[in-house]
Design goal:
Helices cover about 35% and strands about 15% of the residues. By secondary structure, the chain is of the alpha/beta class. It is elongated, with a radius of gyration of 42 Å.
Length: about 525
């Protein structure tokens, strides 16, 4: 029987509306008498009814236990090493002498997997709770394609998203992302859900009990929020942030941003998160910005003190005056070689301390096996090892103004001058920056005063502030005192009368006209 509704309507109109005979309808539309009778009685064809469910071919029944056993083994196997339908078919043929075809096995496996597939229950998300996860996305950093590790916190009730990009997922970026997210949200969510990352979790006991790291416990105590950790391999327990990671990557990072710095990339992400607050999510009647106010009413207050997101490591300075921190080497002044030190790493810099004194500060390196060498740290030892000036690794990228090169060449040509005198001049950089010492060296070259002592005196002279008069502002009681001019005639008795010297002003390299 036809199921074409156009033909069905045409037949019914031909007979019931236009008044034509049933015989003419059979001839015109090429249908039988019984079909015509059904068409005139029913406004539409009857829906298809499956008379009986298709049964599994009997040829496969003796082998179903083996198929089910293979699928059960897959539950504990790695995802990429589980049975495909083709692999199960091959094993049935070789190990169990299965005589049937592949299609029968494939259909049976598809049905079994549907019956055993995990079923989830939609979760309720009360206001004031958050979820956290890391994702990855590529972008162009100063012309080089780079992978960003994006810390993402979301508020499932309002749908608010916060993203912050970092060079690597580590304890510092983990805690820094939280602090920035809390500032963006305007408060601290009372409960946050996590996966079982090694940054907050040191050990897993059962389904929900966790042994937390000391750093996470300190961070949690500072902000006073509750934590929830998903069961192992159950990311669906924080499904909102899992989906938001992909949503943010597809929208905020497509096309791949082209930026010069990480700060520029994070400015793009913050602008996108702010614009996303004006969106209305499916099933909601208010924008994210309006629902965020309901989240904020359930938040914990922000702590008065800002949490210092740093990593503190006890280590030592090696014989090369290098300190290893987070797989990278940072230099310290050579006087601290072979000493125990404390390395404090933040997102932007690494400080190296001995007791309460900061002896070196470097910009944080995020790649592994890198070096941050400050040439100033090695200037003291150059007097003992002058050959290291040209061949030492810290000096290879020691960029100095041209006047330093001219001074070195002039010292090389002067009698009793040389490399060590030039190194003594370089040591002045420990207390005077390059921009302050360079004009002094240029002046010394003009006056042909090339010794390190002369340049040091000229540097000290340039730092002096002349006093023109003694100001009595704020000291009115001193105005009543009159100080007489001193009588210096007594000093003439010290001059021999036989050979009176000609009086000339004392001049030294620091006096310039």
């Amino acid at each position: 029987m036809t199921r074409n509704m156009n033909k069905w309507n045409a037949v019914r109109r031909h007979v019931l509306i236009e008044g034509n005979s049933k015989r003419s309808a059979c001839d015109k539309y090429n249908i039988g008498w019984s079909v015509l009778t059904k068409m005139l009685k029913q406004a539409q064809p009857e829906p298809y009814k499956e008379r009986r469910a298709p049964s599994r071919p009997k040829i496969l029944e003796p082998f179903m236990a083996a198929v089910e056993r293979m699928l059960e083994e897959d539950a504990t196997a790695p995802v990429k090493q589980r049975h495909s339908a083709k692999r199960i078919f091959d094993r049935l043929r070789t190990e169990y002498t299965y005589p049937g075809g592949y299609t029968v096995v494939r259909d049976a496996i598809r049905l079994l997997r549907k019956r055993t597939k995990e079923v989830f229950i939609p979760l309720a998300h009360p206001p004031g709770e958050a979820q956290m996860d890391f994702g990855q996305a590529a972008f162009w950093l100063d012309g080089v394609q780079t992978v960003a590790h994006i810390c993402e916190l979301t508020l499932p009730y309002s749908g608010t998203i916060f993203m912050q990009a970092y060079p690597r997922e580590c304890a510092e970026s983990f805690f820094d992302g939280h602090v920035r997210a809390f500032e963006h949200f305007g408060g601290v969510p009372k409960r946050t859900s996590y996966d079982n990352s090694k940054i907050p979790v040191r050990g897993i006991i059962g389904a929900h009990e966790r042994v937390l790291t000391e750093s996470f416990k300190a961070f949690q105590s500072h902000h006073m929020f509750e934590s929830h950790f998903c069961q192992v391999a159950c990311p669906n327990e924080k499904g909102h942030v899992e989906n938001s990671v992909g949503f943010g990557r597809r929208n905020a990072m497509v096309p791949m941003p082209r930026v010069k710095t990480w700060e520029e990339l994070n400015a793009i992400l913050r602008a996108w998160c702010e614009a996303d607050l004006d969106r209305i999510c499916r099933g909601k009647t208010k924008t994210k910005r309006e629902l965020l106010e309901e989240d904020r009413r359930q938040f914990l207050p922000m702590p008065t003190a800002i949490y210092d997101t740093k990593l503190v490591v006890k280590t030592h300075a090696r014989s090369t005056s290098l300190v290893r921190f987070d797989c990278n080497d940072y230099s310290v002044p050579t006087e601290w070689a072979h000493h125990e030190v404390t390395a404090i790493g933040s997102m932007d810099e690494v400080r190296i301390c001995i007791k309460d004194e900061v002896v070196a500060v470097h910009r944080r390196l995020w790649l592994k096996e890198g070096e941050s060498l400050d040439p100033l740290h090695y200037l003291v030892i150059l007097e003992k090892k002058p050959g290291a000036l040209d061949y030492g690794r810290p000096m290879q990228n020691f960029a100095l103004p041209a006047c330093f090169g001219i001074l070195r060449q002039r010292l090389k040509n002067e009698e009793h001058k040389g490399l060590k005198e030039y190194i003594r001049v370089l040591k002045l950089l420990v207390k005077a920056p390059v921009h302050e010492l360079s004009p002094v060296i240029e002046m010394a070259l003009e006056k042909n005063l090339l010794s390190a002592d002369a340049i040091r005196l000229m540097l000290e002279k340039s730092r002096e502030t002349p006093v023109d008069f003694f100001c009595l502002d704020g000291h009115p009681h001193l105005r009543a005192y009159a100080v007489p001019k001193p009588d210096l005639t007594a000093y003439r008795s010290l001059i021999p009368s036989s050979s009176p010297p000609s009086i000339c002003p004392l001049n030294f390299p620091g006096d310039f006209q």
